[in-house]
Recover the amino acids of this structure.
């Protein structure tokens, strides 16, 4: 019997989620109203083998994913690289900003400024993938991975996936 040469591990746990508010910006400089989602996340890792020597640590991946989710949970997510986003002077402990012609003042500890252009599922998945790779690349528990895909869903059946593949 022939053995498969591609193996995939899926990680989708109830605890690997975050609830956040955001405003998607459109190319014409308009935006959605401030609203929120209960985001869920998933990770898929491709392995070349499932031998003991190539064993993948689920705990390492879940821990890194949980850390990102906790950082984004119960926050207003703002895209720091958005061309329509401008920080304004604010009292200590606050963030004042303009976005698409509207001004906002929020407690700084309830905001997460992200190094992306827009708060969309596509951008959140891509950023989460970059953050996870930075945490996982040099850990033994991730060494056998051939690829890593991260999915961020903003509601059941609606989300985006970003994928990294190890160079040959």
């Amino acid at each position: 019997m022939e053995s498969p040469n591609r193996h995939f591990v899926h990680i989708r746990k109830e605890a690997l989620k975050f609830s956040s508010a955001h405003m998607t910006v459109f190319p014409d400089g308009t935006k959605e109203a401030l609203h929120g989602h209960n985001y869920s996340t998933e990770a898929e890792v491709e392995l070349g083998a499932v031998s003991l020597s190539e064993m993948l640590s689920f705990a390492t991946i879940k821990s890194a994913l949980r850390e990102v989710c906790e950082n984004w949970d119960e926050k207003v997510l703002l895209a720091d690289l958005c061309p329509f986003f401008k920080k304004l002077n604010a009292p200590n402990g606050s963030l004042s900003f303009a976005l698409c012609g509207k001004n906002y003042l929020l407690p700084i500890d309830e905001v997460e400024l992200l190094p992306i252009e827009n708060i969309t599922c596509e951008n959140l998945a891509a950023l989460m993938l970059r953050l996870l790779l930075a945490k996982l690349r040099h850990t033994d528990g991730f060494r056998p991975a051939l690829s890593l895909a991260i999915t961020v869903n903003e509601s059941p059946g609606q989300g985006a996936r970003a994928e990294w593949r190890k160079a040959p």
